[in-house]
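Hi support team,

I'm opening this ticket because the web form for multi-chain structure prediction keeps timing out on my end. I have pasted the exact lines I submitted so you can reproduce it. The total is 879 residues across two entries, so I didn't expect it to be a heavy job. Is there a limit I'm missing, or should I split the entries? Thanks in advance, R.K.
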Amino acid sequence: MLDNSTLATLQQLCGKENVLTDKADLICYSYDATQRQFLPDVVVHPATVEEISQIMKLANEKAIPVFPRGAGTGFTGGSVPVSGGIVLGLTRFDKILEIDEDNLVATIEPGVVTEEFQKTVEKVGLFYPPDPASLKVSTMGGNVAECAGGPRCVKYGVTKDYILGLEIVTPTGDILRTGGPTMKGVVGYDLTKLICGSEGTLAIITKIIVKLLPKPAAKKTMLVMFSSIDGAAQAVSDIIRGKIIPTTLEFLDARTLECVRNATDLDVPEAAQAVLLIEVDGDPEFLDKQTGRISDIVQPLGVVETRIAETPAESEALWQIRRSVSASLRRVNPKKYNEDICVPRSKVHDMIRKIDQISEKYNIPIVNFGHAGDGNIHVNIMIDDKIPGEEKKAEEAIADVFKGALELGGTMSGEHGVGIMKAPFINLELKDTVVDYMKTIKRALDPNNILNPGKIFPSDK
Amino acid sequence: MAKLKKLEDFRAEIDQCVKCGACRAHCPAFGAEKHEGRVARGKVALADALLKGDVDLEEKFLLDMSQCLLCGSCCAQCPNKVHTEEIVAATRREIAKRKGLSTFGKGVGTILKHQGVMNTLAKAGGAFSKLLFKKIPDQSGLRLRFPAPFIAADRTLPPIAAKPFRERHPEVIPGVAGQPRVLFFTGCGINYMYPDSGEALLKALKFLGVTVLIPQDQVCCGLPAVSAGAADTVESLAADNLAMLRRCEYDYIVTACASCHSGLTQIYPGMGAEFDEFKAKVKDIFVFLVEQGLPEKLAELPKADQPIKVTYHDPCHLRNHGITKEPRAILKALPQVDYVEMENAASCCGLGGTYSVYHYDTSKKIGAKKAASIADSGADLVATDCPGCIMQLQDSINHGGGKQRSVHILDLLADALP
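Hello R.K., no limit was hit. The queue was backed up. Here is the completed structure from your submission:
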């Protein structure tokens, strides 16, 4: 519980209506998409960077943890207030400040919803590629803090590849700028990249300078069904080796397709044991050539059927199979552990093999789909958590999946981050010296361990 | 008597919410207020906490639960199809049970139950409330939608009909032999406020030779009472309508109000299996007219020289049932109409049963977005299929200083028919 003087100071700083302490309010800011709940002591919605600076100074003085929050859609608990304290909601920072068409740069506030930003720049023929599945609701601040990815990252890269500069409040309350609106800049350490993906542990982001691209003139979608996962995996390698980088290269494995067949009336033939959903973009004339070449490349690899969309409506119909996955999975078992390992592209099919073995070993359904083009596999471990012992089995299976990915030269998280969910496993991937190096940075910048404590590093709870 | 489900009956449904937050993109109340308590995910968390005894019926809890239009936009986009609108309605009933209706409905229950209070209010209220109290029965949902002391002074309201629609007609209006026999479930909006739309419906059915049944003993569907958490009222209205539906003979039940359609096809069947046989017979009027081949017949009419630009607003309670094509098909087939689609046609208008009474400011914010979409479309008229939406759309347009009018598609249809 916070003392009354602290609350009074917060109210004075941000206005009474922006400082919430009622139980009902605390409940509403206690969770994210991990479904873990931790009640904060207070929820504060500041309006200016100065207010945030003052809040951080107060928090240091009184040793109150602060948990920055965007839309609360993370999958690893990055925003949840694990040790009470202050939830710092950034939804009022929701302005697109500038779209500079001369320099292809935009300046925005962190509470801007990703899709709104994309739609706004697209109106003037520009393009912001990163497209996490949550883009209709997730905010740009959260995307930067977690370094969000998405299907289009195969060709265009992830969030950090588009962030040129930031305005931040440090854990001790200083306001500073990193980077800037130039395409190049090498003066001093690249603090922008350090903050990007730091999961809200090193700074509170208050302004974002984003690099934009010209919007591709057109895109074309094709869906290829394979008789085996081997064929689909080989197709990914062959397409990339053929010097074609599609915009997206999504795959669904046999179990996923079975779920889709059972849960929907979408047309997925029984013979299809793996599917690649491929999109290419660019000049319209160039697109037909690309889909033609892709068709040629995949043809010898056990293709059951190829569908090429000629209209946006047809394209949307092809995407339906991919979009229906999430809801379809729920029919397998009520509880889903959604992991997001990433392996070198050429190892996707070795990884799927390993996962199949893990699934057999623990007798738990594991359903895989995801971004084959960059080796990022969404591994969904499905259990009925009402059956005793199932949760423990799932946790062991998750550890095996992580180990499997690491053995292939991969990582245990391509997109979701560590947060609280993967913190217990971080030593599997990072050597002690690496963890120490990171913790040294954290300690130096946040000596009182005020900002988003208990995340990333397991011992920091 | 068939009973509405209790909050505890929604335990499994509540557990289905995985807190992904997809609802944040689609909730009109959240869009206007940006507070997690406004959105489906927050409300499910609160309902969960109430069931577990982790939260009391404190002021903020009541506020959050009142901040829902029951539009179902969240459920339509929810990956797990969690019916938050039903969970919220059940929570409101739970609140009413524990604290009495007045806590949630700010006096609605008291007004309805005490003749003395009602008379005082009728004297004190404006012309609208006087008419309302004189002509509209206690049990009509309109009373919940317009509890006189809470109606904002700057709100545009339609006049109350001098003679309600149902009183103007005999129970049976015969058609041509061999054509279907339909029961017209008028709803309160058409009966008391928009009787001309009811007349328009009769004209269209007469054009097709359909026999129409207008039972005088039909009552309010009960949707506004669902919104207010008034379980007893909903259950007694449902029982009265069930008796009426059992008494009559017909092939179909037609509605020209999205809320009534939802009451008959969603709320009632949720109360018991006895409603299932009737659910199968309920058709939105435009679904019925399309099935009867009306668009083809309209296509034969001579086109107008100077057509009116018209756009369509999807009422939530039709969109949620997948009824989006048929109203558009009729509009597009009308000889005097130049149809244009607006952006965000499927977003809520902001009325939401009793919502707009208690949260008129938020309701206006939601309505303003809609009014902007209507203006951007370049249409002169916005047509829809729900009296509540028509009223709210006109109010929103007027607040924005727009010149457009909101009408029922039936009104345009009647103009076109010979």
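A quick check on our side: Chain B is about 50% helix and 10% strand. Let us know if the file doesn't open in your viewer.
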